[in-house]
Amino acid sequence: MYNSYWGFHRSPFSGSIDPERFYESPSHEEALARLTYVVDEARQGALVLGAAGTGKTLLAEVFAQRMRRPNRQVVIARSSALGGRELFYELCQEFSLGPNRDASEGELWRTLRQHAVANRINGGQTVIVVDHAHWLLETAAQLRSMHLLFQLDTHAESRTTVVLVGRPELMRGARSEVVESVDLGVVVEPLSLEHTGLYVSHATNWACRDEPAFSEDAIEKIQNLTNGVPRQINRVCDLALLAGATEELDRVTENVIDSVFRELSPEAALDQLAVAV
After folding, report:
1. CA gap 5, 2 in Å, rounded
2. CA distance 243 to 2
3. Are 217 and 254 in contact (CB under 8 A)?
4. Alpha-carbon gap, residue 272 to 117, rounded angstroms
5. What phi-psi label fits residue 144: left (phi over 0), alpha (psi between -120 and 50 degrees) or beta?
6. pLDDT in tens, 163-190
7. For residue 86, what are the contacts with CB-CB under 8 A and spacing of at least 6?
8. Sequence-ordered list of residues with C-beta below 8 angstroms from that of 122, at least 6 positions apart, any chain
9. What is the pTM of this model?
10. Cα(190)–Cα(86) distance, rounded to whole angstroms?
11. Structural domains of the chain ordered from first start
């Protein structure tokens, strides 16, 4: 809606998960380096923790993309909230194993196990990334399913690695299962003021605009209001660009950021609903 006004060729702050738009902050860079080490050394598992909106899902996509090799299969599971059977079924699909729709959780796990073992015997490597792994905490059965992922190939020369990506409650809720299974953990931190500015610039440059679209005081306000959480930054910047285009501004200012942030609050939405009713 505002792209033509600002000279964008695409929306810089859309909610889509696009690896091309990935901004590698120091925290993300360290996470990628550590995860690369775990996979290159064929370790059993790794843990990626971060608060909601810090970019864990995009990090997982970029990591998977960079890790794929002809002799290394890397897949991402996203259905952990649905429980162990659906998780194993999705993984079988991702590996193109043609799972039976009526197969039990145990049958699906055995299919995955056979695949991981065959990969190792043939000199290949298996990497499984489970996004939103904190959802596997609601029942004992889900915790068991998470534990079973690390038992796909228990051979001394196993080449299967499982990476759990989730919120901090994953560690609090499944500490024993996690500690005994993972070799390394990383934490994805929110952005600092400096990197919030670089993140915003990176996004607008990716959208093919060379000139800054946000003033310096606007960047400071964004940092103060979002605490450097990328998802929140995206929401604020997206609305601010729309507001700036409506007001025909040269750049988004601090006042615009203040105004749109108030619109994003749940209280503001309820107020608008009450007026409409």
Report:
1. 5
2. 9
3. yes
4. 57
5. alpha
6. 999 998 877 766 776 777 889 999 999 9
7. 79
8. none
9. 0.89
10. 31
11. 3-11+191-276 (1.10.8), 26-187 (3.40.50.300)
Which residue's structure tokens are 């991702």? 94
Is 67's pLDDT higher than 90? yes
CA 214 to chain centre: 26
Q: pLDDT digits over 73-127, tens only? A: 999 998 877 888 999 999 999 999 999 989 999 999 999 999 999 999 999 999 9
Hey, what are 217's tokens?
């005081």
